[in-house]
Amino acid sequence: MDVLVTGGAGFIGSHLVDRLVELGCRVTVIDNLSSGRVENIAHRLGRGARLIKADVRDPSAVLEAARGCSLIFHEAALVGVKRYVENPIEVIEVNVMGTRNVLEAARRLDVERLVLASTSEVYGKNAKAPLSEDDDRLLGPTYIDRWCYSTSKALDEHLAMGYFKLHGLKLTVLRYFNVYGPRQECSAYGTVVPRFIAQALTRRPLTVFGTGRQTRCFTYVDDIVEGTIAAARVDEAVGSILNLGSMEEIAIIDLARLIIRLAGVEGLVEPTFVPYEQFYGRWYEDLPRRVPDTSKALKVLGFKPRIPLVEGLSRTIEWYRQNPSRLAELA
Questions:
Q1: Which residues are designated catalytic?
Q2: In the chain, which ranges are E strands?
Q3: Residue range 24-55, pLDDT digits in tens
Q4: DSSP single-letter state for residue 43
Q5: Which CATH fold topology does 2-177+220-245+292-305 show?
Q6: What is the pLDDT of residues 256-305, one digit of tens each?
Q7: Does the predicted TM-score (pTM) go above 0.90?
Q8: CA-to-CA distance for 76 and 94, rounded, in angstroms?
Q9: 158 FRET partner, CA 20 to 30 A, in 212, 217, 238, 278?
């Protein structure tokens, strides 16, 4: 089977490419390499995968990349909270224009199936726990740039549902919850897990924003990849929006202490607390809790995360130990 993975040189996309090649697929990757890395997929190039360096905002490039493919996984997006607050215009352009181009290419080429990667961010600051796919979106004011990403991905979902209803495009939308694992960016633009790991391994204080009592549910990338591939295989998933994530909840301060312990640096580094505005500026707002209800994904896909947090963190820490050059991303 010929498959297109947008953003396939990125964190989740590259792991997806690995699994697809293992399954015998011929994979085309389109990635502009703004945050993705060739090294993430170098071991697959010419061995089941090929790379087209292009931007998903370019409709002709997307159309050519998708030509001949029967399945598309749309993973390309501009992510990272610091990016949201620094350049909301680019976030909206990449996420919305890119998704429109991918959907239109799939329609024009009569692609058999499409899986769109969305995010738990679409729920905004809805305080309900756990959050199910039918729950309301609750956002802050538009001058708070943090919500531009949530809005852009919600527009992606609206576009996808429109193509499903109006054009009969067989697709599934997946809302990922706090994915982590090897190859994740650990710079200031990355997420909390790789940043904490990089700080621990380089013997720096782990910067905890706010009080650290905010909680999240972190999901190991291999589990996300298996759920993503299942969404392309199961006919009952067509036209559905599904949460993918772990329900293992942890406070951020406890995550920091756990990573310190697993990295073997207890007594050498400690968490340090930093006000949100010092790092993100004035136009940021956080939420105290986010927990997924994954019962629908279990019913439709048979999705159930297999990798507990301690095991996933241990694997990820070891990967960074084996790839110390990636720690240089940490400013």
A1: 149
A2: 2-6, 26-31, 49-53, 71-74, 113-119, 171-176, 179-180, 206-209, 215-217, 219-220, 241-244, 249-251, 271-274
A3: 999 999 999 999 999 999 999 999 999 999 99
A4: T
A5: Rossmann fold (3.40.50)
A6: 999 999 999 999 999 999 986 766 666 567 788 999 999 999 999 999 99
A7: yes
A8: 8
A9: 217
